[in-house]
Amino acid sequence: MSEGVPINSNNAPPPLDFAGRVRSAVVWRMGSQIAAQLITWTSTLIVVRLLEPSDYGLFAMTQVVIVALNFLNGYSFATSLIQAREIDDRRVGQVFGLLIIANAFLAISQFLMAPVAAEYYGQPLVKDMLQIQALIFLTTPFIALPSALLARKIEFRSQALVNLICAAAGGATALTLAWQGYGVWALVYAPIVLFAVRAIGLTIAARLLVWPVFDFRGAWDIISFGGALTICQLFWIIQSQSDILIAGRAFNPHDLGIYSEAMFVTLIFVGRFLPPLNEVAFPAYSELHNGGQPIGPAFLRTVRAVMLLAAPVYVGFSLTAEPFVAAVFGEKWLEMAPIAAGLAIAMPAMALHIVCSPATNALGRPSIYVMTSVAGAVLFPAAFLFGVAYGPQGLVYSWWVAAPLLLAFSLSLTLPAVGLRARDLGVALLPVASACAAMATVVYILREQLPTILPAAELLILVVAGALSYGAALWFGWPEYLKEAWAFVVKRDSEILITDEMELHA
Predict the structure, then answer these.
(1) CA-CA distance, 96 to 94, in Å (whole number)?
(2) 182 secondary structure, DSSP code
(3) 89-110 in b/e burial notation, b at 16+ Cβ within 10 A?
(4) pLDDT digits (tens, 9 = 90+) for 421-431
(5) What's the sign of the alpha-carbon dihedral 416, 420, 423, 428?
(6) Dihedral of the alpha carbons of 389, 392, 396, 398, in degrees to the nearest 10
(7) Is the whole-model pTM more than 0.70?
(8) pLDDT digit string, tens, across residues 198-214
(9) How many angstroms separate the CA atoms of 383 and 243, rounded?
(10) How far apart are CA 216 and CA 144, in angstroms?
């Protein structure tokens, strides 16, 4: 990689194996994410029964600080390597140098800020937790850089294997420490082990042999592109962490733990499965754009695929939250059921909002991402400041207002940029909305008619009924949706997939 390696000329079509590589990347990345989450959830569901809600409240307090600093971790500089037309050893080394400087600064800053955070929350233990968690930042350079280099090649198989290994290591650490009675420290040390294992695994997978370069002359494009995304990260952090920051002083650790765990459960799809999809979508959109191809059709298909899963998951979860919490978390967590059910209603809007930014970033227009991030950083804290006076349920109402408003603003900028109209999106999502309405009707009626039975049995009956009614509505109304999703997974002829994409655009 000592000489610049061009991706594509401006007018060259993507290589014929492009669609095949994208399909393989999605299958590996999403498949490994599902497997990793199964591993994580197995340990989490045991750990959550061993720990107390107050432990999760304390942990949530530290996460606000970590996430608040994390926007400066330099990941955006590594992301610039994915979008760039060509890279060489010097450019990679400069990114490595930026990552090392940024994360060393963050580790020191968190260590020094820990006493201030503990005083703010009125919880002395927060100081010790934050100082130990500062170790996480030291692993970031060895995760961000190899991840970007592998993503640039749309190569996610090795990343998938590493994710499975680190999920097992983190889960085993949390389970062992919780079982041995270490309480909240099980939540502290598990992520440290997970990040350390991921750093080692990805460094090996990417064969990262480049030394860091601390001479940043000629790196303005890296800094400017990465800087724009870093600013977006700052606004995203304000948006996503403002509820815990505001509620941390208003709620006691128990109530904060109830709300934060409800958020954790509700954000599983949006927070755990959409980011991996975006990791594949961004380099795929970039390669299409650099090859002179329109990305609108690909964006529309991505949105359709995401909402095909996200909408029924969240509508169904909203209707089954009580038996889910009782069966999975246990009786002491039942307070979180109405909170989780309410939050689920806002999540389809967030899912659709989140998949917009990879498309506009791939077009070289991070300013759109900046504007939507600013909007979120204004809307959500304002809503939470009002809603916190009404307790955890008041924060739920804040989500109901802020999420749809942010989505409307995001789509007003994204759709014209990718060459689509609001009508195109509406036509694509109408079948999903109709099928969800049919599913919700069936589940609601069945839930009201069921006798009192074990929560696990009730949950199983409602989930099966919901899945069957949703699938039946799509099959009889819009079978092409299901066939398209299946074809993406099983097709082997990538040339056919590219032809499908071009025909859709036409």
Answers:
(1) 5
(2) -
(3) ebbbbbbbbbbbebbeebbeeb
(4) 999 999 989 99
(5) negative
(6) 20
(7) no
(8) 898 888 887 777 788 87
(9) 9
(10) 18
